[in-house]
Design brief:
Layout (H helix, E strand, L loop, with lengths): L10 H19 L15 H82 L3 E13 L2 E13 L5 E9 L7 E2 L2 E2 L8 E3 L4 E3 L3 E3 L1 H6 L5 E10 L8 E11 L5 H5 L8 E10 L2
Antiparallel strand pairs: 1-2, 2-7, 2-8, 3-6, 3-9, 4-5, 9-10, 10-11
């Protein structure tokens, strides 16, 4: 149970108290001006150590960030350098590839050319080669009475394969029905004849009377023959061989001996003087 009491004051005491309070207020108002004194707040040791650690960690993080930035910059430079190297290698590889393709193309062409050359050589070795073989002389007439001497040129296929569509013309080089200004006047070719390898065949003769034979002592006569043929290889068709021989009587027998056929090929000097063989 609480109890209290109230002290009653007289009017005089109240006036004194008020006057005393008024004096105190005046005294406070009349006090001299105050001076500011700097105050230094000292941190506690724990707070100071924590601040230092924070500063150290902050500095450490900054160093780490700077190191990371430098590392990234160096890595970027390395990436740029590597990229340049890769581009250079790619360009070099492209150039090397193009050069390799060029070499391959040249090799392919060389191989094709080698095959063509080998084929041409093989065909040249296997083709028909028709050339001049020799000449011959025969007599025409009755026994003891020769009306004419027949001189012929003989051809031979020196090749390995047959000659196809063989046609020939022979006669005096001055005969315009046999030889024109542009060359031999071959008869109609058609299918022609086939001349197997190693086979010799003769052309039509040049006919000389006994008097013509004797006249060749002073004025030799010429016999020309040309032959046209095809090979079995399509790329070697239309071959032409052409030869001209000169005939001279060198025997000592007179016209009577010639008329009765008392002479033989040894009484003649015959040799090719012009040859245009397609060899």
């Amino acid at each position: 149970m609480l109890s209290g009491h109230v002290v009653a004051q007289s009017p005089e005491q109240s006036e004194q108290n008020q006057a005393e309070g008024q004096r105190q207020d005046d005294t406070r108002n009349q006090s001299p001006p105050s001076f500011s004194i700097p105050i230094r707040i000292l941190e506690e040791p724990e707070q100071s150590e924590s601040s230092k650690q924070q500063e150290q960690e902050s500095a450490k993080r900054e160093k780490q960030d700077l190191a990371a930035q430098k590392s990234m910059a160096e890595s970027t430079k390395e990436i740029v350098w590597i990229t340049k190297v890769q581009i250079g290698l790619a360009v070099f590889g492209a150039v090397a590839l193009l050069y390799s393709l060029h070499l391959n193309r040249m090799s392919a062409r060389a191989a094709v050319d080698a095959v063509k050359i080998a084929r041409a050589n093989a065909e040249a070795e296997l083709r028909a080669w028709v050339g001049y073989a020799h000449w011959s002389m025969d007599c025409f007439g009755k026994t003891g009475k020769v009306e004419a001497y027949l001189f012929r040129i003989h051809w031979k296929n020196y090749g390995v394969t047959p000659a196809k569509k063989v046609v020939a013309v022979a006669g005096s080089p001055e005969d315009p029905t046999k030889f024109g200004s542009d060359g031999p006047l071959f008869p109609f070719i058609g299918d022609g004849a086939v001349n197997p390898p190693g086979v010799v065949f003769q052309t039509e003769p040049l006919t000389l009377t006994p008097e013509d034979v004797l006249a060749t002592r002073e004025r030799p006569v010429r016999l020309r023959s040309a032959i046209r043929y095809d090979c079995v290889f399509d790329g070697m068709n239309v071959r032409v061989s052409d030869v001209t021989i000169e005939i001279r009587y060198i025997g000592k027998a007179g016209i009577e001996a010639i008329r009765v056929g008392a002479i033989n090929p040894d009484n003649f000097a015959v040799a090719p003087i012009e040859s245009n063989e397609m060899t």
